[in-house]
Amino acid sequence: MVGKNCFAIASDRRLGVQLQTIATDFQRVFKIHDKLYIGLSGLATDAQTLYQRLVFRHKLYQLREERDMKPETFASLVSAMLYERRFGPYFCQPVIAGLGENDEPFICTMDCIGAKELAKDFVVSGTSSESLYGACESMYKPNMEPEELFETVSQALMASVDRDCLAGWGGHVFIVTPTEVQERVVKGRMD
Amino acid sequence: MSRRYDSRTTIFSPEGRLYQVEYAMEAIGNAGSALGILAADGVVLVGEKKVTSKLLQTSRSAEKMYKIDSHVSCAVAGIMSDANILINTARLHAQRYALSYQEPIPVEQLVQSLCDTKQGYTQFGGLRPFGVSFLFAGWDKHHGFQLYMSDPSGNYGGWKAAAVGANSQAAQSMLKQDYKDGLTREEAVALALKVLSKTMDSTSLTAEKLELAEVFLQPGTGEVQYQVCSPDALGKLLAKAGLTQPAPEA
């Protein structure tokens, strides 16, 4: 979700196999560089592998171009990587959030074969995505400061995952501003 | 006589030498020198820049020092275009290792793989060897700080202090005399600058002719840091070591 010169990216913490919960501290939001994060929902192994492959590509980019990747460029890279597997896809839906030129917040999501969807306010993915769309739509306000953004994102996330039996067990929220990153674990219904 | 045996890389001479490899090392002997010194708390790499024209655009990229991964970097002596190819290969290799094993590549393994590539060009394919010598500096959790030198034949060795490029013999013997175990990074920098100033052709050392990089552990986080010295800081270091030519009297 976009705020004023900042963005928030959050996920739930459940890792499960249908009805069995395997872990309650699963990391789904990953850092690419200080101002770029990617959240990967869907199949856990694909999320981890895709993240490792993206780190590979980004590290080489950093070494060659001697700078960090811009979020827009990164989104294109993710989209291309997903489409490479068009007929045997990664079962993942990424949510990409970063601070671009002049620290402008940038967010986008895509489907599992790389169809990019840019947005100015918020993007969602996962099993509770329909619920999240509703919660974000009603709670979002433009130009929120980091503290207010954190509240809004946490409330929207918790409200949506509470109605989803496959998501929950707390929330992991990152608030990224040009100067710092705040990482917080939100306590929710542990079921 | 020996002319008959030196046009192809893949044949020995009657004396049992590979002339193409030796000619490659000759080429490096004409290039700008590079020095590496292993200190107790880091590795210091210093390079002499051969091309110092006013017309040259000084971009951010370094001429002699390159980062290969966050924990390994190298100094180069020889044909720059050959070096670029090998550095790209090294970078890819380091990332592929990290992708498979999810941990940073041990420095010696990276050096070995690069040297295996170099060796290939001395045995088959009919292509000439790479005209580059490297000084690799890095840190890993198995052996701490390490310095390796590799040459066009594909040989490599771990060193406490090493020199490649022009006047490397002289630099190496000077290092042998003055190197002590347990040097700190600052002492190593001072030693490197002193040795380089004696072996370089020019009469005075200025910050524009040199590049200095250090590999060390960041105090606090313990992360490996590769830092290239800025020209200003380098100028100050040279002045402190008493190596810059004093300003002409008014």
TrEMBL record, chain A:
Subcellular location per UniProt equals: Nucleus
Q: Which GO terms describe its cellular component?
A: cytoplasm; nucleus; proteasome core complex, beta-subunit complex
Q: Which UniProt keywords apply?
A: Cytoplasm, Nucleus, Proteasome
Q: Name one GO biological process term.
A: proteasome-mediated ubiquitin-dependent protein catabolic process
Q: Which InterPro entries match?
A: Ntn_hydrolases_N, Proteasome_beta_3, Proteasome_sua/b, Proteasome_suB-type
Q: Which Pfam families match?
A: Proteasome
What residues form the membrane-spanning segments? none
Q: Which CDD domains match?
A: proteasome_beta_type_3 (cd03759)
Describe its partners and assembly state: The 26S proteasome consists of a 20S proteasome core and two 19S regulatory subunits. The 20S proteasome core is composed of 28 subunits that are arranged in four stacked rings, resulting in a barrel-shaped structure. The two end rings are each formed by seven alpha subunits, and the two central rings are each formed by seven beta subunits. The catalytic chamber with the active sites is on the inside of the barrel.
Role summary: Non-catalytic component of the proteasome, a multicatalytic proteinase complex which is characterized by its ability to cleave peptides with Arg, Phe, Tyr, Leu, and Glu adjacent to the leaving group at neutral or slightly basic pH. The proteasome has an ATP-dependent proteolytic activity.
Please report the name of this protein according to its UniProt entry.
Answer: Proteasome subunit beta
TrEMBL record, chain B:
Domain Proteasome alpha-type subunits, first and last residues per copy: 5-27
Q: What is its main location?
A: cytoplasm
| Record Gene3D superfamilies | Glutamine Phosphoribosylpyrophosphate, subunit 1, domain 1
Choose any GO biological process term that the UniProt entry carries and state it.
Answer: ubiquitin-dependent protein catabolic process
Signal sequence range: none
User: What UniProt keywords are attached to this protein's entry?
Assistant: Cytoplasm, Nucleus, Proteasome
What's this chain's function? The proteasome is a multicatalytic proteinase complex which is characterized by its ability to cleave peptides with Arg, Phe, Tyr, Leu, and Glu adjacent to the leaving group at neutral or slightly basic pH. The proteasome has an ATP-dependent proteolytic activity.
- Per its record, how is this protein called by name? Proteasome subunit alpha type
